[in-house]
């Protein structure tokens, strides 16, 4: 193969992954994690630490990816906890938002959960403060939190905090799902 073509292909591959790197303590997960990449961006940041990001790259753009952490819930058991961050989006095709959950040992479904789907960020939006607040069960084993990028686009988070807050801070609650009809519409 022509060396010029090989060089161009290698350059394209390097350009496609520029800025994407492991983010210490954070994981890429979600419905289609292979469609996304994560990294740290020092140019698009509001702090001197650099903003963490999740970005759609290719594949299933009907699913979602999440940049997340999972930690022990020991220090937060029985307390009201707020995960807060500055959030910025670019060309998000479905929605983006912060989320948090608490799981009990051995259970598959969260004992507490909120994902901001009822307060989505769509399209392109400048930096804005967002938060998720949950009451963490006294027997919670793990605390999970992060940001969702559903569909195409990119989401940055910066100035992150995870803190115990007082009862005066309201808890975020997922809207109730619509109950199925009692009778069929035939």
Structural account:
- This protein has one helix and nine strands, in the order H-E-E-E-E-E-E-E-E-E.
- The chain is globular.
- The model is unreliable at 1-19 (pLDDT under 50).
- It is mainly β and 186 residues long.
Descriptive key words:
186 residues; mainly beta; 9-stranded antiparallel β-sheet; globular; disordered N terminus
Concise description?
This protein is mostly beta strands. It is 8% helix and 48% strand. The protein is built from one helix and nine strands, in the order H-E-E-E-E-E-E-E-E-E.
**Unreliable segments of 5+ consecutive residues:** 1-19
Beta-strand content bin: over 45%
Mean of all residue-level pLDDT scores: 88
Global morphology:
globular
Q: Indicate the radius of gyration in whole angstroms.
A: 19 Å
The helix content is: under 10%
Kindly report how far apart the N and C termini lie. Answer: 64 Å
Question: Number of helical runs?
Answer: 1
What order do the helices and strands come in, and which of them pair?
Layout: H1 3-17, E1 27-29, E2 36-41, E3 51-56, E4 64-72, E5 80-104, E6 112-114, E7 121-135, E8 140-150, E9 154-165
Antiparallel strand pairs: 1-4, 2-3, 3-9, 4-8, 5-6, 5-7, 5-8, 5-9
């Amino acid at each position: 193969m022509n060396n010029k073509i090989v060089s161009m292909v290698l350059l394209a591959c390097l350009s496609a992954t520029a800025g994407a790197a492991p983010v210490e303590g954070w994981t890429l997960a979600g419905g289609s994690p292979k469609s996304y990449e994560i990294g740290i961006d020092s140019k698009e940041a509001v702090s001197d630490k650099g903003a963490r990001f999740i970005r759609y790259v290719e594949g299933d753009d009907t699913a979602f990816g999440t940049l997340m952490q999972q930690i022990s819930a020991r220090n937060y058991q029985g307390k009201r906890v707020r995960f807060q961050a500055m959030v910025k989006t670019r060309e998000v095709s479905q929605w983006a938002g912060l989320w948090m959950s608490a799981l009990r040992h051995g259970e598959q479904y969260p004992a507490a959960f909120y994902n901001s789907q009822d307060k989505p960020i769509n399209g392109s939006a400048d930096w804005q403060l967002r938060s998720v607040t949950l009451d963490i069960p006294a027997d919670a084993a793990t605390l999970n939190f992060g940001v969702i990028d559903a569909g195409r686009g990119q989401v940055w988070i910066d100035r992150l905090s995870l803190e115990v807050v007082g009862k005066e801070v309201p808890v975020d609650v997922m809207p109730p799902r619509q109950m199925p009809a009692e009778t069929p519409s035939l």
